[in-house]
Each structure stands twice: as C-alpha cells, then as structure tokens.
Amino acid sequence: MTARYLLVAALFFTHVLSTVAQHTAPYKSTPSEVVTLASKILKEDRQIFIHVPKRDSSNLNKRFPVLYLMDGESHFDMLAQYADYLGRWDVEAIPPMIVVGIVNTKRTRDLTPTESITNYFGKPDTAAVSWMKPSGGNKAFLQFIRDELMPYVNTHYKTQPFSIFAGHSFGGLASVHCLLTQPNLFDAYIAVSPSFWWDNDYVLKLADKTLKPGTTLTKTIFYSDASEGVADNSTYHTNLLKFDALLTEHAPKGLSHQYKYYPAETHMTSPVVAYFDGLRFIFKDWKSR
Amino acid sequence: MTARYLLVAALFFTHVLSTVAQHTAPYKSTPSEVVTLASKILKEDRQIFIHVPKRDSSNLNKRFPVLYLMDGESHFDMLAQYADYLGRWDVEAIPPMIVVGIVNTKRTRDLTPTESITNYFGKPDTAAVSWMKPSGGNKAFLQFIRDELMPYVNTHYKTQPFSIFAGHSFGGLASVHCLLTQPNLFDAYIAVSPSFWWDNDYVLKLADKTLKPGTTLTKTIFYSDASEGVADNSTYHTNLLKFDALLTEHAPKGLSHQYKYYPAETHMTSPVVAYFDGLRFIFKDWKSR
After folding, report:
1. Does residue A3 sit within a domain?
2. Which of B24, B37, B77 sits opposite A21 (nearest CB)?
3. Looking at beta carbons, which residues of chain A come within 8 Å of B93?
4. What is the ipTM for the molecules in this complex?
5. How many CA atoms, within 13 angstroms, populate the side-chain half-sphere of residue B137?
6. A84 touches chain B (CB under 8 A)
7. pLDDT digits 0-9 by tens, A226-282
8. Is A43 contained in some domain?
9. Are A151 and B90 inside 8 Å of each other by CB?
C-alpha cells in the first residue's frame, strides 16, 4: 500500500516537474495613474484614476476624447478595459479614449441635486447617522469638475474637445442633472439606472420643466434600468419610462437619446452591458477611417 | 496686446497651479501573472496569463473555479475584469474565479479540428504561405491543456474542481469540439461565434453524429453569434441556428444550453456581451450564501 502510494506520488511529481514553469513574470496591462487633486471648491483632496490609451508610436500627438466616470472605485477597471478593447485597431467600435475615474469621498453629498431625507421608500430617513446626510452638493461637485478637474486633465493629457459624463445609480442621477442644468459641460451623457426617486422625483420634475418642446439641446444621452423596479415593486422602472416618454414627446432639437431596459440584470450587473451599450450608442456614427 | 496676453497667461497659470496635483502614483489593479510553460506535447514554450481573485484575508484557503480562455492575448483583460467585477461581494453574479488565458503561437493549428484548406468562402486557399496552414492540431492542443496546463494550474493555484472552457471564433469552434470529443475535460463551455464553417461544417456534422437522442451529457454550454452571417451573406448565422436546433431536438440528457444572437454586434464587439451572458448563464443557479 505504501509502496503503491509512493509510486503514484513519484509518477505525479515526475509529471508535474515535467511541465514546470520555466519562468513567471508579472502581467502588464496598459497602466493607469492615481492623481490626488487638492480641491479648493470641495475643500478636500480628491483621488482621480486616469487611464490613457496605449502610446501610438506612429502618432505621438494624437488626441483623445475623455470619459469622466463617477464612482471611480466601482467601475473604473470596467471602463478602462472597454476603452482599450473597443478602441483596438481590430475592433474599432469607438475611438481610443482617456478614462477619468472620480473616486468618492462623500458620495451622497456629491451626486445628489438637493438636500433631502426622503429615502428610497418615500419615508423620511431619521437615523442620527443617516447615509443620506449630507446631500445636495451636486452643483459644487460639477463646479469642481468644470473648474478644477477638467483644466487639470486638459493640461496634463492629450485631450480632444469631446467628453462624456457617465454614472450609475446616484451617478446616473448626477449625469442627468448635469445635462439639465449645465448641458454644455459635456458632449454626451450616460445614466445607468439613475436614482430618479431622489427627493420625490426632483430630477424627473426638473426635466419636465427644463426640456420644453422647441428647446434645442444638441447632446447625446443613453439611459437604462434593470430589474430594480420589479424586484422591489418601486417606481424605478416607471420613472425611466416617464423620462424616456418625456424626451421622446418634448423632442428637444438635436438631442440624440437611447433607452435600454435590462429586466434580466440587477442594479449591480447592468452596468456591464449598459456602459457597453452606452458607448456603442454615443459613437454609433464614428468611423476610424 | 502683450500685457493683456501676459495677464491672461498669468491668470491661466495661477488657475492651473491652484489645482495642481499633490501627488501622482501608479494605479494598482488586481495583479496577474505570465507563466511560460515548456510543453513537451506541443514541443514549444507556451505563455499563459493567470489572474487570481483578490486575497480574501478571512479565508486564505478558499478555492476557486477556473476559466480556461483561448486567445489569451485578445480577451484576457476582459475576462479578468469580469471575474473581478461579477465576483465582487456587492455584485455576486458569479463566484470569484481564476482566469487562465492561453496565448496563441500557431492559432489555426491549435484551434482547428482537422487539416483543411477550404476557406471561409468555401474555396481552397492555395496561397504558398496560407494563414490556414498548419491546421488540425486541436486534439494535441486539448492534450496539452489536459496533461500539462491543468496539472500545472491545479498544483500552483487554489483551484476548485469546476472549470470552464471559453473561446471566440476558432476558439469557439475548439470549445464545441472539446465538448463533443472530450466532454469531461470541462464542466461548462462558452463558444462565442464559433467558426462552424471550418472544413465544410466538420464540427456541425460531428455534433449531429455524436449527440444522438438519448445521449447523456451533463454539461453546460453557451453559444452565440453576431452580424457575421448577415454582413457577408454567409452560413455563419444559419450554422448557429442548426447547432441550436440540433441540441434542442436531440436533447442530450443533462445538457443545459443557451443560444444568443446579437445582430447589432460585430464579430469583434460581440465577445463583450457574449462572455458576460455566458458567465451569467453558467452560474445562473449559483448563490453565494
């Protein structure tokens, strides 16, 4: 028994040794940077992840569109990978892009348009230490992007004057809020499962007031939702339908919009397909040659 | 004019300096390794990319399913990112996974089941230096995976006895070929736009012969195609429909299969959604808790 075991073990180790690695090295992907900006507007340091396309030795002065992404700590790897893959010479679905991921400090404060304690279930959140507090700082956050982040990125990287603002959940809400209040800050917007429920549908009502028929808004927006509304029987999905109907009926001149509903995906899986579909939509008319 | 220019320049630089980065550092993503294996079976060195889930300090002995991916140089970053994201505690669509990307040396040789010079258009490729030559080495390639790569991975990494074989185009063909000829090599298979056209639909005919009604095949397979067949008026799409009909009608016992058609995607963009949908399908019944 022991002899047999030793034989098996010997054969096993011989076999393993015969396919031993010659060499193991770290894998190198296109590198990204972490920049820390001292923001005077937000009165705090902000971490920014920045991914640039692979150096094109045939065109060192090439300039790139920029995707500004909220929730950098959550979705930066995904968007950096999409930028690399979809911009590859043999894929060519979008141009190679710079991806700027903004890392949260106080997420609710930065991404919500108003101060509110009305929670997802329409009830006041009265907890002493509420996740909803502080809120309503999106205007200051957009000012940080406009006056501090964008000048930094445009100074230090080879940017083209075409930029996208992309976010998920509260980030989706902030993306739509920016389109409504400062549309010229970006050229295109992606709002994945925007939290329209915030403050009794504040942004949805603002959209209805702002985007009157006859308005001109030469921008592109992609928005989506997943199973949220069905999973919890909330207004998540009906709010998206309302927003889509509003854009379709009021039909601002020049606005290119697409809505996708992913009933098989959850709040957290849908960004995988929605960011892909959003980029595909924004660059649908782009041709590399 | 000069004074005014200097004033503008001064204001500009003051502004830029006021938002200067305090600090720039390299971005760190979950690291991967490059292992070089000296294969006796293939008589050459093979580069393998290996991505392991983030170290879970609460469970250092945790073991993981393994995804073996063909065309490592093309799709490893994508699958490593999907494994990280979809396996995250707040996403939980799939278990955290090890991703093993096999880098090509002679792609046509390794991924095709037969020697053939009948090209995509059904004509003999008679070029002196044909991209189709050599071909027909998939059996040896699967032997390399079984007898050299898998033992290496199982020895050096914390693997679970659940593995997936995933490929695109010729890699999709190789994935189906493996399911038909060595089904027990893997537990689940992903075939994104498999090149069924190879050698006058060799693998499709083999499927018809192999998967007779009443056969037992307790495996999972996801397969898909995109606009290929429409774009070039070829049999690409009808071949996928035939394969799907065959699996549905012959209905091997225990076989779980899903087919997705992405008419809006190209041969090169569809892997983004197909690999995601494939992983979602394979782990549809997986629960983390």
Report:
1. no
2. B37
3. 266, 268-269
4. 0.91
5. 18
6. yes
7. 999 887 789 999 999 999 999 999 999 999 999 999 999 999 999 999 999 999 999
8. yes
9. no
